[in-house]
């Protein structure tokens, strides 16, 4: 996942606690080595041991020079509050404990003050926190850049693109309840004052096969469950959906329908709001939901084996009514 910035002008050991105790306390409460470049000896075992020791004290970030390594804590930590953003704003990257805010600030100020295009590359295995890291970076940029009606509108569009992209591109896997099944390249454009004025989001490598089949214990893309859980009766009736994921073949074969850590109904409301903010019209939103409903119904169509006259294998549709039901909710754009 790439997140470029481009100028268009041309407990007491918790690092957050340390931020409010002064610069000296930061070093006193630091566990292990905050920059792996300073490890002695510099070996893989020493690096892993240092990461583990820091992780035990909720210090999930560690530098390797100007690279920050993060370990997903799989819990909410008080590391991303507005007052923490202010602590890292316009500070030297090594003044405070390692944090993704420091990397974000370094890139943002280099772009704004030195007119240098920047690119933050987020890499890691499934479940490592790449999606959340991109949200944190965008949150930081939105907070430290300028204000104004047009600027705030662009910021809101950039931030609200996340729930929409996740709904149609993320899914629960065996290792991650919100795993991105696609690649994302986000190009945020700024004016000469460092205020965001637009952006381009490019998606690639979408795991389309997941729509038709999932491994045991995994789920389809979030949007299907969100629509069924969050759609009101009027909407579901208009789409001719039952509201029960168990009724649809594309959702009920993997043995995983509901996830305790995921609120599908609430997320559906965020998706609808996000679509409105980023510019979808009411009719376009309706068309998208009709397409989602049609896909769900297509999964209920059954096929029977048939032998062709020439000796090849073929099939016949066992329930033609399923075709009719699916077509009724499909917009003309199908």
Structure description:
This protein is an alpha+beta fold. 41% of the residues lie in helices and 15% in strands. It has helices at residues 15-19, 23-28, 44-56, 82-88, 100-114, 130-144, 149-169, 222-230, 233-239, 264-277, 282-298, 320-328; strands at residues 2-7, 61-64, 67-70, 118-121, 170-171, 179-180, 183-190, 196-204, 303-307, 313-317. A four-stranded mixed beta sheet has the order 4-1-7-8. Strands 2-3 form a two-stranded antiparallel sheet. It is globular. Residues 7-27 have low confidence and may be disordered.
Which features characterize this protein?
334 residues; alpha+beta; four-stranded mixed sheet; two-stranded antiparallel sheet; 12 helices; 10 strands; Kinesin_motor_dom_sf
Q: Distance N terminus to C terminus?
A: 31 Å
Number of helices: 12
Order of helices and strands: EHHHEEHHEHHEEEEHHHHEEH
Q: Count the E strands.
A: 10
Structural class: alpha+beta
Task: Give helix % range.
Answer: 40-55%
* Rg calculated over all Cα atoms: 24 Å
Low-confidence stretches: 7-27
Largest sheet: 4 strands, mixed
**Mean of all residue-level pLDDT scores:** 88
Broad shape: globular
Itemize the secondary structure elements and their pairings.
Layout (H helix, E strand, L loop, with lengths): L1 E6 L7 H5 L3 H6 L15 H13 L4 E4 L2 E4 L11 H7 L11 H15 L3 E4 L8 H15 L4 H21 E2 L7 E2 L2 E8 L5 E9 L17 H9 L2 H7 L24 H14 L4 H17 L4 E5 L5 E5 L2 H9 L6
Helix pairs in contact: 5-6, 6-7, 7-8, 7-10, 8-10, 11-12
GO molecular function, one term: actin filament binding
Keywords: Actin-binding, ATP-binding, Motor protein, Myosin, Nucleotide-binding
Family: Belongs to the TRAFAC class myosin-kinesin ATPase superfamily. Myosin family.
